[in-house]
């Protein structure tokens, strides 16, 4: 499932391709991917202008000139491609948004969605989300205050969207590796220095993910060489040597989630 770095990469590319452009046509091939009747959805969105694409947690928000918003969550298996019919992947497209400069194809939205929401509904949608990990407002002091009464395991806490928004299975493990802490540790057992290391590791791991274009396999447009360039440090590397010490990476299942770490570098 795409996490913060993947959605941030999509956001940056979408603003390059679609910001300020009108949506000239819509094709809905899967009605379950939207939240209102097709005719109403089409009428509300067609001929509106995309003012900006924003990100909140693992969601993208297409701000429309009508005052409404398209809210995207790709969930498991979802991805996007921007281009034309000749360039687009030979895959079923659940939704297609057309602009004068190209089409945006939504692919693999079996669980994902592109909902039409007003600002009030948008606020309700995000009401339970925790702070953004890369926001300046989440200072080291604010982070330490956030974790001081937490008792849960690092892995399950980091993927909890009401704690901090946007982190999932992959980057929770990457963060713990950068912080040199086992994801099996409990927050209330960490020293103040380890909590500080966790904060620093969170910032470093997520920024590294964004800089390398995240881990999505498929390019966002023809000629895209950034998307999917991210090389994981520990995630999905069971039995492979640690990039720092050479010790084989270990896999554990924590609350039904695959969890990867180096038993030598992480304590």
TrEMBL record:
Protein name according to UniProt: Formamidopyrimidine-DNA glycosylase
GO molecular function, one term: zinc ion binding
Domain of life per record: Bacteria
InterPro entries named among the record's database cross-references: FPG_cat, FPG_N, H2TH_FPG, Ribosomal_uS13-like_H2TH, Znf_DNA_glyclase/AP_lyase, Znf_FPG/IleRS
Lineage: Bacteria, Bacillati, Bacillota, Bacilli, Bacillales
Domain FPG-type: 233-267
Domain (Formamidopyrimidine-DNA glycosylase catalytic) ranges: 2-123
UniProt key word Oxidoreductase: no
Species of the source: Anaerobacillus alkaliphilus
Entry cofactors: Zn(2+)
SUPFAM superfamilies assigned: Glucocorticoid receptor-like (DNA-binding domain), N-terminal domain of MutM-like DNA repair proteins, S13-like H2TH domain
EC numbers, comma separated: 3.2.2.23, 4.2.99.18
UniProt family annotation: Belongs to the FPG family.
């Amino acid at each position: 499932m795409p996490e913060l770095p993947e959605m941030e990469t999509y956001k940056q590319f979408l603003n390059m391709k679609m910001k300020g452009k009108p949506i000239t046509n819509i094709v809905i091939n899967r009605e379950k991917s939207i939240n209102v009747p097709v005719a109403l959805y089409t009428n509300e969105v067609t001929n509106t202008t995309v003012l900006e694409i924003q990100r909140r947690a693992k969601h993208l928000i297409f701000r429309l000139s009508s005052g409404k918003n398209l809210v995207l969550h790709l969930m498991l298996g979802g991805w996007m491609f921007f281009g034309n019919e000749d360039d687009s992947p030979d895959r079923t497209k659940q939704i297609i948004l057309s602009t004068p400069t190209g089409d945006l194809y939504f692919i693999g939205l079996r669980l994902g969605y592109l909902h039409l929401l007003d600002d009030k509904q948008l606020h309700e949608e995000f009401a339970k989300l925790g702070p953004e990990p890369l926001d300046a407002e989440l200072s080291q002091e604010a982070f330490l205050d956030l974790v001081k009464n937490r008792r849960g395991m690092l892995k399950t806490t980091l993927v909890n969207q009401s704690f901090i928004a946007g982190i999932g299975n992959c980057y929770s493990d990457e963060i713990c590796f950068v912080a040199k802490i086992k994801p099996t540790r409990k927050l209330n057992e960490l020293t103040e220095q380890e909590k500080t290391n966790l904060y620093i590791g969170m910032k470093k791991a997520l920024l590294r993910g964004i800089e390398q274009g995240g881990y999505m396999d498929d390019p966002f447009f023809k000629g895209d060489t950034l998307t999917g360039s991210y090389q994981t440090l520990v995630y999905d590397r069971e039995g492979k040597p640690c990039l720092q010490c050479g010790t084989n990476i270990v896999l554990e299942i924590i609350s039904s989630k695959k969890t990867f770490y180096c038993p030598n570098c992480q304590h």
